[in-house]
Design goal:
single chain; about 60 residues; alpha+beta; about 45% strand
Length: about 60
């Protein structure tokens, strides 16, 4: 089974903005990485920094 991990630093002021930024990030990753065409977002980790949020996105091949 193939899996792909991507990391992104987000500058979000609110939870609503964070969700919007995460959706945009997933769309951009899918557009720029053809290997994600047959994958789904399997897990998401968020870690809060002092002024940013570090997001780790795990994509796995669909069954």
């Amino acid at each position: 089974m193939g899996s792909y991990v991507y990391e992104k630093v987000l500058q979000s002021a609110s939870s609503e903005q964070l969700l919007t930024d995460l959706r945009k990030t997933v769309s951009e990753l899918r557009r720029s990485n053809p290997e994600l065409r047959n994958c789904s977002l399997a897990d998401l980790w968020l870690r809060r920094g002092r002024r940013e949020i570090n997001a780790t996105l795990l994509f796995e091949k669909k069954h």
